[in-house]
Amino acid sequence: MTTAPELDFGKDNVARGYDDVLVPLIFRPWGERLLAEHGPWDGRTVLDLATGTGVVARLLADRVGSNGKVIAADINPQMLNIAKHHCADAGERVRFLESSAHPLELEGGVVDAVICQQGFQFFPDRAQSAVEMLRVLRDEGVALVSTWRSVAECKAFGAICGALDAIGETELANMMRRPFDHLPEDELQAHFEDAGFNSVELQRHEALMTCHGGPKSAIELALATPIGPHLRELAESVFSRFTDELSDRATELSRGESHLGKLVSNVIVARK
Ligand SMILES: C[S@@+](CC[C@H](N)C(=O)[O-])C[C@H]1O[C@@H](n2cnc3c(N)ncnc32)[C@H](O)[C@@H]1O
Question: I need a labelling partner for 98 at 20 to 30 A (CA). Which of 28, 71, 235, 243 fits?
Fold first, then answer.
């Protein structure tokens, strides 16, 4: 696989943009769907691994009830700080853990489920991260792990990459491809089979990315990703060419409707 520069979530402005724009547009609706399709959650202890700004942890806190617990873990304190703020109402039902996915700072056999929404593709040692998930699960526990499919299938991000390529910003385009194009489904599935899970099912989820701002939303989306700080550093004329290119592509995607095309994700359902 080709390598691309890492995306950095560990900056305050990235965490803020992520929470303000990407969570309502993408991660909350996808998290709601993931939780609705699995469960039941009442009374469960659930690890939300790579919790980010805690959207899934918040949704879980409402679902696990007074006998359940949520552990929200992330490597970046900037993301966790926002998660803590959002989950304040849940009190002791949500515990926060500043930890990498591998090694995971948690005892073995303590959770009924691990959820990892769009985090696994960023882990430097994915094989060991899958082993860590298995280790912290109780017997018959389940790991739900979602990772985007390629930018060719995740249309709004394909449009951002296409616009960057068109203006010669190939390195930025490759950074943007990083969460999408670097983890084929067979490799994803093999990590969980090799880790020793009893059963591993690969599902494919897709949904239109609903938004009302048309091309303006696509620009807002690009600026809210971890490549946002790099886009803001472009010369004004280059940035303006980027927004023109992206607006054209977004207009074509939405065709006058309130969306920016489909997003498609792989979802692993792995049982211990
Ligand atoms: C795209 S965000 C997903 C956040 C969250 N799951 C959600 O649905 O909004 C990816 C997250 O992975 C975290 N992350 C990246 N590498 C990590 C690692 N090695 N261990 C733990 N978390 C990591 C980042 O800090 C970031 O919060």
Answer: 28
